[in-house]
Amino acid sequence: MFNQKHILVVDDNEINREMLEMMLSEEYDIITAENGQEALDILRNSSVEISIILLDIIMPVMDGYAFLDEIKKDDELSLIPVIVMTQADAVEDEIAALTHGATDYVRKPYTIQVVKHRVASIINLRETAAMVNQFMYDRLTGMYTKEYFYKKVREILDENPDTNYAIACSNIENFKFYNDVFGRKTGDKLLIEAANVFRREAGPDAVCCRYAADRFLAFAESENEETVSIRLNNAISDVRMELLEDMIVDVGVYNITDRGVTIEQMCDRVFLAVDSIKGVYDRNVVIYNDELRNRLLREKSITEAVETAMEEEQFAVYFQPKYDLKTGEMVGAEALARWIHPEWGFMSPGEFIPLFEKNGFIKKFDEYIRDVTCRKIREWIEKGYSMVPVSVNVSRANVYSARFADGFCKMMKKYNLDPMYLHIEITESAYTENVEQIVSAVKNLRENGFRIELDDFGQGYSSLSVLSEMPLDVMKLDMGFVRSNLDRDDDNGIIGDVVNMAHRMSMKVVAEGVETLEQANQLEAMGCDFAQGYYFSRPVSADDFEKLLIERKCIK
Ligand code: C2E
Ligand code: CA
Ligand code: CA
To answer: 305 alpha carbon to ligand 1 midpoint, in Å?
Structure first.
């Protein structure tokens, strides 16, 4: 029969073996051995799973006691129940067998019913126990399973209403990478080690479990937030040292302040916390609080709202004009993204752009803004206005794409535009990573007739030597850089120096965030060419920008 359980009968007496086989073979599959040694060989080498062993005591080569001693040494074999077969009057044998680890005994001569019952009930018992075990412990690490963890934590919380507790969770960053590179076996070994370190550092009183692949949870008493995080911080450096030096382990902690929620929900808070520092390399421990919760919930809902926003055209492009400081003439504009959400209202790009960069949506998004901008430029040219170049911002995440320049060229074809109308703003910090790639992207764009503006200069990232290699057209001085240097009476020189340097490199200079006439005058005196800021105009809608184009009036 399919799925029949296997019984190993170990007896040197052939008649005994045959008798047992006769009694049991209807329900079980019988495997036989003539002595302890042969039985051991079968257990070690055969692939079938033995449910129970029926064992004679007195046998040549290896007797029953020696056999029992042997299997006790083996973690897996020792789990198989053994029924010892003894002579009717040999009470001492029975006691000795039990002390050697036998599960039970039956007396010879056999009574069919007794043998059948014992075998069935012991197999049954063991299976139930194994199931409970399987449910309670994770097979790889020996830690509790999450189901058992939930149950246990709930019990402890209910029994100790006045004690403070915390739940902590570890997360190995890029664990999948280690698994792929070193193979699954090594990955498993790493996990077992990590589990051991985690368990040890969590302390002897902690309840630990393996939640999922590389996530371990610990539930323990916490005096205050500090003690928990300090201890965990130490734990992390230990984990790192003992495993791989460059492995990054993050830990999230939730101090249980609200016992009204389920343990699953408590764990979700821990995960929220730990996931919030994924990829943040200067922080490895984070403690959950409501502020974090609200921030993450908001981030999550923003991310989820994106597709609909795109479909419903909730994104708009605003335009902020740039002016020539000498003549007061409008010389260009910057396209700035706006999100007007039906419920949340106006949202700042400073809030959603970084999220789009994180979730990869930024590529599609920048393309969309670029498309809308080009469509508008085409429309305004058709209407016969004297058009100024409009710059679009590109996230540095997109600059590294091999087809970066292609996208811009295609857009020019689509709207039949001269590339002189579209400037490209690339933020200063982009020039610090993958220098070669960006130099070649910028060169490519310029060969195709586009003008490149270096955005946010003065935030302190660029290396001047890189800039000198790069064919750039305009340098935009960061708002903060302009303000802090204009404010310092003694040190007005630096802006002048930067302007001179830019001019030597054949770049024009735009100052951002100019809010007063005084600032505009100072900047002009320092040789700055253009300015953009609330003093001249806030970013305005396409319709309002169209009015500015019609007027093209001088600000001066
Ligand atoms: P940014 O490129 O440095 O843009 C200038 C920011 O300064 C804009 O903020 C603008 O509204 C603001 N601003 C202009 N004049 C003044 C002023 O006189 N005073 C003050 N206090 N602020 C002024 P905004 O529109 O909130 O954009 C923030 C950032 O979001 C932008 O910084 C840019 O990095 C990014 N961004 C905006 N649109 C896009 C886009 O379509 N794609 C990408 N990748 N990034 C974008
Ligand atoms: Ca910009
Ligand atoms: Ca800027």
So the answer is: 22
Q: How far is CA 306 from CA 65, 68, 116, 395, 397, in A?
A: 71, 66, 67, 17, 18
pLDDT band at 484 (very low <50, low <70, confident <90, very high): confident
**Entry pTM:** 0.64
CA distance 40 to 56: 14
182 to 188, 190, 196: CA distances (angstroms): 10, 10, 20
What would the two tokens of residue 416 be? Answer: 């039949």
Q: Are 69 and 102 within 8 A, CB to CB?
A: no
Mean pLDDT on 74-83:
86
**What is the C-alpha to C-alpha distance for residues 398 and 362, in angstroms, rounded to an integer?**
8
CA 402 to ligand 1 centroid distance, Å: 26
How far apart, in whole angstroms, are the C-alpha atoms of residue 50 and residue 40? 12
Q: What is the mean pLDDT of residues 20-41?
A: 92
Cβ of 515 below 6 Å from ligand 1: yes
Cα separation, 62 vs 33, whole angstroms: 11
Q: What is the 3-state secondary structure (H, E, C) of 200-233?
A: HHHCCCCEEEEEECCEEEEEEECCCHHHHHHHHH
Q: Which of 346, 335, 332 is nearest to 375 (CA)?
A: 335
